[in-house]
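HTH lacI-type domain-containing protein structure dump, as promised
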Amino acid sequence: MATIKDVATAAGVSVSTVSIALKHDPRVKEATKKKIFEAVDRLGYRPNGIARDLKMKSTQTMAVLLHDLGGPFYSELVSGVQDVALAYDYSPIISCSVGGKGIALKRLLLENRVDGAIILDPYIEESFIRKVASPNLPIVLLDREINLPYVYRVTSDHEGGAYAAVAHLIERGHQRIAFVGGPQRSLDNLLRYKGYQKALVDHGRSVDARFVYAGDFTEKSGYALGLSLSGSQYLPDAIFAANDEMAIGLLRAFSEKGLKIPQDIALVGFDDIRLSQYTVPKLTSIHQPMYELGIVATQILFRVLNGESNIEPVVLSTQLMIRDST
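structure tokens r here:
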């Protein structure tokens, strides 16, 4: 096991400098900190944390690592986490990985300075999760399939929800049904695409690559795609967008270009964020229980902290919410 002296040698600094840097002391230059923390990651060094924390049975804190803190999806999820955590007198420390902002929170996990963690971020490497998960630091993963000791899973029925969305469009008589997906590394995106494919095949249709488009789960990407599609000769007559934010971006672009929803193009989203009920027209969507997702994940974490270990993966149901866009 690596020691603080090994880190000092690898970074080319003194042991005392490493010790000060690990406390995030501003006296250490950023360039030096960078070298030290790179050495920490490379060697797998795990500081013991503050002695006071070691003497305590619990830190009364939990980490929540998200890919992004923006958007209505994350706000409802965080509300669920906070409601359960506060009931147990715990303080959730919430961070996102966008722009490298999650680095400090990842260090808290490496130092065992929290009692457990909830992670919803496809960009956090499996190797990191394997390194930090332990009896003293259980992890609950959202929307991710990794089978590791001390790691527990909660997800929604993404494939079933997508299937229901596309089946609904087929029942409405639509022939050219497009799919607008999110990031390729996202498991929920892959499962939603799988549900899209299965619904088409089960109804005697084939998947046409011309009607499969890539976005990034943001309204901006949906809007850009909508502007592009508006002048295309391969315009679909219905679209299943893999989340509501992209669907709302599409809706805005089509409206600007004079296309009517659902007369010209029917539109279904996924997540059923609150805004979907207030768009014009109101957006048909697949309801994903974001608040409940946060609640269940946090409840599982506390079950583990209270001594349970045999906890099966949990899959929450989704529901088709039919509104004016179809």
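Residues 72-87 form the longest helix (16 residues).
lmk if u need the other ones
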